[in-house]
Every structure is written in C-alpha cells, then in structure tokens.
Amino acid sequence: MKAKAKRNRNYDPFQYAAFSGSAALDYLNLRKEEPTAPSIKRHFFPPSDAPDYNKPDWASEMSDLENTSHTQEIPEDVKEVTQKYVPNIISRPLIKNRFLELQKWEGIVLQISKDSMVARLIDLSEKESEGEAEFALDEIHSDDLPLVKPGAIFYWTIGYLDKGGQRIRASIIRFRRLPRWRTEELDAAKKDAEYTQKLFKGDQQD
Amino acid sequence: MQPRKMQNIHRSYLKGTSKIDAPEKKEIEISLFGPGYGESILIHVGDNNWLLIDSCLDSVNKEPSPIIYLRNIGIDPSKAIKLIVASHWHDDHVRGLAEVIRQCSSAEFVVSNALRSKEFLTLVYALGRRSMMETSGVQEFYQILEILKERLQSKHGNSQLLKHAISDRLIWRSSTSSSAYHLSCDVYSLSPSDESTTIALKNIGNLLPVEGQLKTRALAITPNHAAVVLWIKVGSIYILLGSDLEETDNPNTGWSIIVDSTTRPQGKAVFFKIPHHGSENADYKPVWDRMLIPNPLAGLTPFIQGNVILPKKSDVTRICQRTQNAYSTALPRQKRLRHRDKTVEKAIRETVKKIKEITSSTGHIRLRSKDIEPPINWKIALFGDAIPLHEFYEN
After folding, report:
1. Given an 8 Å threshold on Cβ–Cβ distance, is B343 in contact with A169?
2. Minimal Cβ distance to A153: which of B122, B133, B359
3. Which of A61, B97, B187, B365 has its CA 20 to 30 A from that of A43?
C-alpha cells in the first residue's frame, strides 16, 4: 500500500467531508514516516470476493481509530482487513457541497408590480458599479415571497455549486431575513435622538 | 427639435477635470455635478470662498465629486468650503456628504428645519446605526451627526456646527473683508414653510419602525416637503437652487408659498437649478415669471432609477420652451452592465428580465463670469456627459 501511495505533501484527508476507512488507515499509517497520500481506488462496487461486512467489524475499528492520535500503531491485521474489505463505494473522496462564488450583488427592492420587482444592485464583488434589474417574481423562492417589499434587502449570487461530484451553474436570490424591531432598540434610538437634539439645541442660536 | 445656437460653450469630452484651472479670485463660478443618480452644486463666491450644496459620488473613484474637482484645480476644500447645505436627506443628494463634512471642518452645515426633529433623529439612530445597505441617506446622516457630535464635544472646528433652514431665513453671509477680491454674498433658505415642515414631520413619523415590524431600509418620501430651496446673492447676481421641491395642491407648501412670499428676498435670478430633475410635478410657471430673468441659464441633473427616467420627453420640451439655455449633467442612456465572465453573463441573462448600469461618467456643467452685475457674460463649459438639454433625447 505504501508503495502505491502517491507523494503529495499538500494532501490532507481532513479536507474531505467523508473519506474511506482505507484512506484513513493509509493516512494514519503513513503519517508516522512521511506525509504521503494514499492511493484511492475508485470502484463503485466491492470486490466479488468480499465477505460479509459484519465480519470482521471494521466499522467498530474505524470508530476507535477516529479517537486515536495520528501516531497510534495500527495492528497489521486491522490494516489488512480494512484495506481489503472496505467497500470502495465509500472509498471515493466525497467533497462537501461547495459553492464557488463568481459574482455577488446586494439588492434593494425599489418597485413591485404584479409579476416582477425592480431592484437596485450594488456589485459586492468589485464594488465598482451599481445597476438596476427587473426580476420576475418566479425567480424568488416561495419562502422569500412574503419578504418582497419596497426597501427589502436581498443578495443575488452567481456561481458554481459543486454537489455530489457534479458542477451546477447557479443563480441564487436570497432575501435577507432581518430581525424584527425590538422595543429596546427603538427605545435606544429615541434616547439617542433626544440626547442629540439636546446637544445641538445648546449649539443653536435660533 | 431644432438645434439651438448657444454662446461661449466649451465642450470638453475629456474624462475628468484634471486639466482645468481654478477660477480667478473675483470670478463667480457655478458648477453642477451629476452622475445620473445624484447631484451636487459648488459655487465660488469670490476670494476662494466656496459654497457646497449636496453631494454626489464620482462614478469612477466613488469619492465626492466636488472634493475631487476642487483638488484637481488646486484648491484645498478644507479651507475653501465655507458653507455646506444638505438640501434634503434622499440618497441621491447626500452621498459622500459625511466625508465632505469630515474634510471641511471649518464649514458651517445647514439642514432642513424638518430634519432637526426628534422623529428624523430617531429614524437616523434606528436605521442609520446599523449598515443595511452600502448607501443610505439616513446612514449618511448618522455618520454626519457622529462627526458633528465629536466636534461639539471637543469644541473643534466651527462653534456653530448645525444650522437649520426654514423659509425666508438668512443662513449665511460672507464675512466682511478688505480683500480686493471680496464679493458680498448672502444665502437665504426659501423653504421649508411652516406647513411643509409639519407635513414632512408627519411623513417621517410614518417611516419610523414599530415594534415587531420586519427591518427594512427607509425609502425616500415623495413629495419631499423638507427640501431646502436656496436663494444666493453674489454681488448683484441672484441664483435660485430648486433642490427637489415639488409643487402641491396646498398653497401653503411647495413652490406656491415661495413665489407668493412677501418676506423672501426680491430680485430675479440669472441661474436656476431646475427642481426635482425637471419633473412636471416640480414645475410651477410663476417661478419662471416672477423669480427668474427671461431666458435664464438653467441646469438639471437627471434621475435614472427603475423604470423612472427624469426628465421625460415632455419635460425636456416644456423646459426648453421656457429657456434656450438649459443643460443636463448626464444622458438618459441605459448601459448594460459591464462585461463579466461568460458564465456570469449567461446566468444574468437567464435570471433577469432587464438589467442596466445606473452610473455613467459624472457630468459637470460649469458657468463662470467675471461680471458681478448684469449684463453678465457667462463662459459655459460642459464636461463628461453634460449636454444642452435639448439634446437629451437626441442620442
């Protein structure tokens, strides 16, 4: 296994959302000597000669391993069993669902008509330009529709969604769920207003 | 519409204003800046004394346009600007104003009487404290108040930091000076009237958040009863700056009460900053008849937002019938968004019905005159997207 391992010093298996038992074992084993990455077999089905997965109990071994330090010696039999019988369907390095942002705007709703809304957009990616756009209300998620009011703030993001090994181009409009006004906040604003008014009254000649 | 002949117009299509000179010390200058959304007016009243009314951001570097202009012509705004007026609190009139006030510590600051109210201040502290949006009129005022409070507490800068404008009030007068370049200058506010103030307070009160209500951003109120109209006298020249004041059915508000006022300073203005981007509801014929010379110089800043473009074609026609010397700081063109990544472009096309850029290059109308008594020979220069108004819909 060691011989098959690719040398990649930047490899870090913990960047994976879930990595296979064999990958973990490889990692733990090799880490003692040098930080090389394991070779990961990409099979969707276990080998035909694979025994019942309940024997040996590799799952419980994995559970223990997760709580051990990286330098713990792994028994040879455990390594052997795990390398051989862990179903390869989970040995594939699954990457977390990830959103790669290409462009983002902050929007404020200006006008709403029967089936569309007009919004001012501020380019948050470069903060260079402002725009205005008319969106069909169909583009808004039904959960967000009650939030579509003049003055409401939303974010419009365009990017790639990496999900389940696929890359999907996505345009996401998400309305900002600002909290409701609380009495304390309003009281504080009134208090500040009174103080400021008093402060500047003393400065007035009229 | 027939092309008109205009005298002494210098059109510069150069981007920016870096190669232009400062006015002579005894030369009057009126500069109107407008990037398509926002406006600002800068007036030289002699001896390197400048007045600033409202602020807008330069479309390229996002700094206040009047500050950039002054620096480009070699003038230090912190010393030169003596008076700053916020004609009202809408986004398109106050962008960058906090930065201007921060830089100009010796300038007096004037706001509408309606904005001294507890209602408005509560709105500012409720909505302005927390950034809900990149730009917001109340947020700008929040920053301004914080700067002024700091100055007041440290007694730094001008002793009277905040003045309020109301109808027919002298809000600024040039200090007497023995300088050969000194020009007498009086600045009067002609609005808001008492009744306008009351209505404005009621409208602002309606914007105040209530407990349990979802937080949103305060949008502009129309009609804007709090708007400050200014009457400026420099030497024997009168200037009328219309802010965004609209005419209403109520004779105690809007333009009616200004025109009919017996306590306002009398005279006829040679320059008119056309109110509310030339809209029909801000037009009041008696203003042209009783407060302006025939065929006055007039300037406006367009307003391009959503489906609204001001002035409309009918507005342009009407204004051009009243004066042949009207100018606009920007064009009504609707630019597409700048070029982006192909994937982004494709997603944009699939998501929106329409999209456009708001900002174009900041247009600048500049009028200069060495005459301080009629007849006045104006030198007119147009920079950036500024154009004679009759060309507004010709492109």
Report:
1. yes
2. B133
3. A61
Using the predicted structure, report yes or no on whether residue A40 has a pLDDT greater than 50: no
- The torsion angles phi and psi of A24, rounded to 5 degrees, stand at -65, -45
Query: Which of A56, A62, A57, A48 is CA-nearest to residue A18?
Result: A62
Q: Enter the DSSP assignment of B311.
A: S
- Mark yes or no for CB contact B211/A182 under 8 Å: yes
Find chain A residues with C-beta within 8 A of B149's C-beta.
196, 199
pTM for the whole structure: 0.74
**Nearest C-alpha neighbor of B376 from the set B295, B299, B320, B319:** B295
Residues B386 and B328 sit within 8 Å (Cβ to Cβ): yes
Give the tokens for residue B370: 């060495």
Please indicate whether residue B7 or residue A120 has the higher confidence score (pLDDT). A120
CA-CA distance, B31 to B215, in Å (whole number)?
38
Nearest partner of B353 among A139, A173, A104, judged by Cα: A139
Place of tokens 């509310």: B276
Q: What number of other Cβ atoms are within 10 A of residue B175's Cβ?
A: 9
Both tokens of A72, joined, read: 């713990």
Q: How far apart are the C-alpha atoms of B186 and B382, rounded to whole Å?
A: 27
- Beta strands B379-383 and B9-12, pairing class: parallel
User: A69-78, B36-45, B131-140, B297-306: which has the minimum mean pLDDT?
Assistant: A69-78
- Cα(B279)–Cα(B243) distance, integer angstroms: 12
Q: At residue B124, what is the residue type?
A: V
CA distance B22 to B70: 8
**Residue A49, CA distances (Å) to A26, A59, A84, B64, B249 in order:** 22, 19, 10, 75, 91
Those residues whose C-beta lies under 8 Å from the C-beta of residue A82, and which sit 6 or more positions away, are A21, A22, A25, A58, A61, A62
* B 313-332 residues with CB < 8 A to A: none
What span, in angstroms and rounded, lies between the C-alpha atoms of B120 and A92? 61
- What average pLDDT score do residues B70-82 get? 94
| N- to C-terminal Cα separation, chain B | 12
What's the burial of A111, exposed, middle or buried (CB within 10 Å: 0-12/13-18/19+)? middle
Taking the C-alpha atoms of residue A77 and residue A68, their distance in angstroms, rounded to an integer, is: 17
Residues 61-120 of A with CB under 8 A from B: 102-103, 106, 108, 110-111, 116, 118, 120
List of chain B residues whose C-beta atoms are within 8 Å of the C-beta of residue A136: 353
